[in-house]
């Protein structure tokens, strides 16, 4: 699905910063060399990726819809790569689907675009400036906004820290 193509001189819309115009799934990836068999799990990252053509003169790469990218490694194989838009009001509107569930405290039309965090068996896309985390499936599909099952009364950070000794997740939040 090609969503837009934009010719621009804006450095945040070209080269390595250029938005990815399609959601992709690739399986059984070719590996140059060898992956250690012990390396097992996912590598996942999040970043801004506008789903609609932004205004060339004012766009900054911190702004825009979130897109997660991930690789799944197991038994010396690269099982898959996929990228998905993080669910949001804007993404739902563009894809003509219902908005995702749960609170949207900062009222942003964009989805989380800053970090991916995991805790207690869940994966979330997170954003600075007070947004609600968006839960993702193992395959990086949007599940919905996750206010920690009703226990998070407001904003959350994009950079929580897990304490392996206490098994607690710590967050500094502003809103």
Structure description:
With 175 residues, the protein is mainly beta. The chain has one domain (11-170). Helix content is 4%, strand content 31%. It has one helix at 89-95, and strands at residues 25-29, 41-48, 66-74, 77-85, 115-119, 122-126, 134-136, 142-145, 161-163, 168-170. The strands form three sheets. The chain has a four-stranded antiparallel sheet with strand order 1-4-3-2, with no helix packed on it. Strand 3 (66-74) and strand 4 form a beta hairpin. The protein is globular, with a radius of gyration of 17 Å.
Summarize this structure briefly.
The chain is 4% helix and 31% strand. With 175 residues, it is mainly β. It has one domain (11-170).
Offer a few descriptive terms.
4-stranded antiparallel beta sheet; mainly beta; globular; 4% helix; 175 residues
Could you outline the blueprint of secondary structure elements for this entry?
Blueprint: E1 25-29, E2 41-48, E3 66-74, E4 77-85, H1 89-95, E5 115-119, E6 122-126, E7 134-136, E8 142-145, E9 161-163, E10 168-170
Antiparallel strand pairs: 1-4, 2-3, 3-4, 5-6, 6-7, 7-8, 9-10
Mean pLDDT: 88
Overall tally of structural domains: 1
How many H/I helical runs?
A: 1
Rg, please? 17 Å
**Global outline:** globular
């Amino acid at each position: 699905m090609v969503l837009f193509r934009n010719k621009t001189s804006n450095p945040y819309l070209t080269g390595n910063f250029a938005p990815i115009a399609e959601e992709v799934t690739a399986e059984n990836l070719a590996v140059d060399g060898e992956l250690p068999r012990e390396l097992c799990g996912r590598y996942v990252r999040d970043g801004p990726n506008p789903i609609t053509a932004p205004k060339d003169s004012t766009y900054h790469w911190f702004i825009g819809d979130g897109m997660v990218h991930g690789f799944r490694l197991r038994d010396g194989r690269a099982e898959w790569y996929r990228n998905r838009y993080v669910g949001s009001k804007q993404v739902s509107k563009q894809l003509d689907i219902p908005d995702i569930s749960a609170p949207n405290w900062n009222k942003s039309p964009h989805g989380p675009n800053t970090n991916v965090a995991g805790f207690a068996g869940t994966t979330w896309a997170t954003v600075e400036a007070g947004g609600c985390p968006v839960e993702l499936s193992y395959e990086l599909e949007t599940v919905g906004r996750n206010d920690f099952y009703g226990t998070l009364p407001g904003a959350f950070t994009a950079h929580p820290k897990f304490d392996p000794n206490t098994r607690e997740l710590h967050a500094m939040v502003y809103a």
